[in-house]
Specification:
Blueprint lengths: L2 E5 L8 H10 L5 E5 H4 L7 H9 L3 E7 L7 H10 L17 E7 L17 H4 L1 H9 L3 E2 L3 E3 L7 H16 L2 H10 L1
Parallel strand pairs: 1-2, 1-3, 3-4, 4-5, 4-6
Amino acid sequence: MKTLVIVTHPSLDQSRANRALIDELSQHNNIDVHNLYEEYPNLDINIEKEQQLLSQYDRVVLQFPLFWYSTPPLLKKWFDEVLTYGWAYGTGGDKLQGKEFIVAVTAGGSEHNYRSTGHYEFTINEFLRPLEISIKYTGAVYLPAFVIYDTLEATDDQLKSEALKYAEHIRASADVLVENVKAS
């Protein structure tokens, strides 16, 4: 399965967690990394290029740090500009139909804080609902997210361990990912 990982981090060089994830992915075949902030430093997205890129892959992973309980601004812009009517949805908009999407998020806060009784009052999955429904709206398949919590406090060894889990997660079959969620 060909997998495209779209990384959206405005300061990737300063992110130990996202860098660890990308470093691990570089060791795996059939996984290509596409850095949006590197590709579009002026935030001027080449829509046709992005659509063509998406059409070449079976699975798309959206990797980003949680910014103010949402995506970094360029990823939101990417959704707005690339997933257009007539291409991703609406009349003739079937280009993402059946493609698999996974969201991979790094969060500075602890998992305990991302609970209804925690400091942030909501789970990560609740914060990711707009992405989930947007992806499903295109006819694509939304698979269980991968989340790393406490990234600001994590040691290099912890990040390396999480990166190994990440690579395993995004390479797993859709059936395995869904089963793992049901089992937990």
